[in-house]
Structure to design on (395 residues):
């Protein structure tokens, strides 16, 4: 691979990195933001929504992003989205009203949908079929590294002033030249009889699982800053450090994903990912000290490192090349809707039981999904043994 190709791939992987920090980078600022806007109606709830509002916008926009890519082209939409990301993201540093800040967060989400769909589709376009698992594993690794570096940096900056983490979004301007100069659209060569549209029946279960994964995971950045207030020596820097620990475990698991994908069916990897996440949430919910909380966060990170590339690989393996952009757009939609609706759906549970018991309930639900996936995968394997061989991408 020549230098230009390496720099192109680095640009695509770096762009994937900033989609995950679109929401989490300001997590450590939430308590101070709530205090700053305390005089406005429903400020405590709206500040939490400000964290995940980009996810709602991304979820809505992602439904049409695949269609837009087919009309405009991957590269042109990609470049425009990176510019919008920097502008809308950094606007929170200067905006003085909560409604204006929420509007900028919504615009940020629109850019995230386009960046994530374009980057993932282009990574699949450039990857050889046999190397798809490795390429998506590297993408997940870079997303995890972004979670480590930028979320930790966000915690440090929030300790100085809650507005400073918004300036991190300007990193998109460093990625934009590489995309503009090195990336080019590759024409899809459809196989004979291949559909130009993804199969909803095939995509729906994968999308639903992607949504469920984010519903559970996003309880961590949303509630952890408040959960840790009951721990000794809690601070924004400590919150950022613990959230970065999730990213470290995520990255380690992403490195292992290609090997896991080579040996296990997608459904078995799914069971592993949800099993780890569920165990981690149980540990976090029952934690009374930092060591147990750290152990739980590491397990959650390992689960993410398995699930994130697995969902993309599963979807792409069951979608013809001409339909990739739309299929990934559907998955991106559900992933980001899961991020947004996580605090909306879990807030009543937290209000009734507390943050710790809510983590315990989410952990039990994740373990139930893992058990179901494992049982379905075993039944599929038994059926294959008595009938015909089933491709590894089957559940």
């Amino acid at each position: 691979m020549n230098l230009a190709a390496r720099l192109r791939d680095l640009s695509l992987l770096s762009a994937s990195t900033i989609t995950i920090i679109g929401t989490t980078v300001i997590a450590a600022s939430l308590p101070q933001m709530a205090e700053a806007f305390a005089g406005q109606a429903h400020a405590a709830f709206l500040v939490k929504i400000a964290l995940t509002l980009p996810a709602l916008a991304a979820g809505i926009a992602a439904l049409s992003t695949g269609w837009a890519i087919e009309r405009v082209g991957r590269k042109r939409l990609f470049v425009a989205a990176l510019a919008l990301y920097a502008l809308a993201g950094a606007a929170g540093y200067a905006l003085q009203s909560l409604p204006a800040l929420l509007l900028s967060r919504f615009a940020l989400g629109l850019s995230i949908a386009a960046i994530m769909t374009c980057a993932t589709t282009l990574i699949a376009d450039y990857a050889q079929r046999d190397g798809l698992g490795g390429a998506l594993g590297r993408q997940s690794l870079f997303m995890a590294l972004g979670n480590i570096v930028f979320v930790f940096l966000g915690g440090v900056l929030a300790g100085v002033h809650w507005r400073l983490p918004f300036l991190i979004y300007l990193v998109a301007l460093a990625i934009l030249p590489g995309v503009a100069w090195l990336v080019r659209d590759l024409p899809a060569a459809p196989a004979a009889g291949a559909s130009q549209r993804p199969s909803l029946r095939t995509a729906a279960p994968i999308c639903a699982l992607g949504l469920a994964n984010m519903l559970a995971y996003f309880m961590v950045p949303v509630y952890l800053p408040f959960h840790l207030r009951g721990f000794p020596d809690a601070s924004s820097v400590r919150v950022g450090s613990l959230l970065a620990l999730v990213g470290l475990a995520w990255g380690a698991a992403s490195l292992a994903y290609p090997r896991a994908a080579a040996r296990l069916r997608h459904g078995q990897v799914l069971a592993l990912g949800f099993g780890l996440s569920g165990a981690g949430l149980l540990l976090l919910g029952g934690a009374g000290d930092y060591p147990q909380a750290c152990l739980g966060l590491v397990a959650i990170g390992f689960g993410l490192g398995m699930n994130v590339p697995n969902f993309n690989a599963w979807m792409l393996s069951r979608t013809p090349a001409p339909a990739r952009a739309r299929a990934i757009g559907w998955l991106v939609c559900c992933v980001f809707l899961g991020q947004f609706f996580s605090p909306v759906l879990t807030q009543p549970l937290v209000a009734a039981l507390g943050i710790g018991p809510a983590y315990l309930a989410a952990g039990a639900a994740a373990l139930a999904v893992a058990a179901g996936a494992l049982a379905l995968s075993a039944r599929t394997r038994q059926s294959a043994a008595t009938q015909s061989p089933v491709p590894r991408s089957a559940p």
Summary: The longest helix spans residues 355-386. The chain has one domain: 3-182+198-386.
